[in-house]
Design brief:
The chain is α+β, with helices and mostly antiparallel strands. The chain has a domain at about 40-90 and about 110-140: Immunoglobulin-like (Sandwich). Helix content is about 20%, strand content about 30%. It has one helix at about 10-35; strands spanning about 50-55, 60-65, 75-80, 80-90, 110-115, 125-130, 135-140. β1 (about 50-55) and β2 form a beta hairpin. The longest helix has 29 residues, at about 10-35. The termini are far apart.
Length: about 150
Amino acid sequence: MADRPRPFDGIEELLDRLNRQIETATKSWETQLDNRSRLDLSTSGSEMQLDLADEDDEFVVTVDVPGYESDDLELRLTGETLAISGTRERTEEVGGEDETYLRRERKAQSFSRQIRLPEPVDKDAVQASVNNGILTVRLPKREPSEEAHSIDIE
C-alpha cells in the first residue's frame, strides 16, 4: 500500500514556487514605487500634472492648472518640500434666481500636490506666475555655505 501515489505531493512545491514569485514581484513593485515617490509626496492621486526641471541655477516647476486663477492657487515652501494646492468653487443653483442656465454641470474642484526638491532653494527669491492655465514656479538654488563651523568635543 505504500506504493500508492499521494495526490498532494506536488502542491507544497507549487506553493513554494508561487510564494517566491510573489515575493519577487512585490520587491519589484516596491522599488518602482520608491523611485516614483522619492520626489512626489502627494498622498493621493491628482489629476494635475507637473514637471520638475533642473536648469543649473534654479529648479522650475510647471503645473497645468486650466481654469484656475492665481487667487485660486496656494503655494507653500517648507524646507525642501513645495506644496501646491488649488480650489475652484462653483455654485450650484437649480431653478434659482439665475435663470440663464439651462444646464449646469461644472462643480467645485480642488487639487493638492507636494514635491520634494532635490536641493535646498533660496526661499526669498522664489517666483511664481500663471499664464494661459500654466503655473510656473521658479526656485533659485541656494548657494552652498562656505562658512566653516567649529564643533566642540566634550
